[in-house]
Fold this sequence. Notes:
alpha/beta, 6-stranded mixed beta sheet, 39% helix
Amino acid sequence: MTATAHRLLLVRHAQGSLGTDDYDRLSPTGHTQAERLGAHLRGIDGAARIVRGGLRRHRETADSIGDRQAIDAELDEYRVDHLLTAAFDPASGLGMTPPPPEAMADPAAYLQTFLELFPEVLSAWQTERLECPVNGRWRAFDERVRRAGGRLVEAMAESDTVTAVTSAGVISTLATVLLEQDLDWQRRLNVALYNASVTELHRLPDGRWRVERINCVAHLPGDQHTLA
């Protein structure tokens, strides 16, 4: 990093407990990922200023990085399960065919199926063809992510490095805004982000953003590269 650039680290939480009664808690693999992530970030000054969402998986991940944490609930993720349920409801009018019952009962085993389906679901939500009472409108989600991003930028005025621990939907949306990408790019990044990955953006003196790395998991061994 150059002396005149400020660094924003967008960190996806470590693996949650998909397929259990509480996805929001880290799995055993997730705890190991978080420990490796923490050691990596402390080595590059990533613990200097930590801002995290209010979800349990955000907290458990951030706790492995450092103690100086601020909480911003506008970094919380939307509910993917409710978007899927709404999309598969015949009343939605989308005509989407849900995966077989065994996939719905064991999403961890059929993760690839859901990852392939989700960009289409997300597109329907973003274009207001899908209504989801739990998540509200995409526009409202996008607006709160932008507000949280503004506060992260403000925090960068006081610290050269700010680390935000959040989720894939938030990271992909904020990166899309800062890098001036389109929503197709956002959807592709959303389903590609690994658990405990680091996306590093530098803010230059003229206000432009430069990408240093996206979805980096070099700090994790291959058998710990997980998508949910």
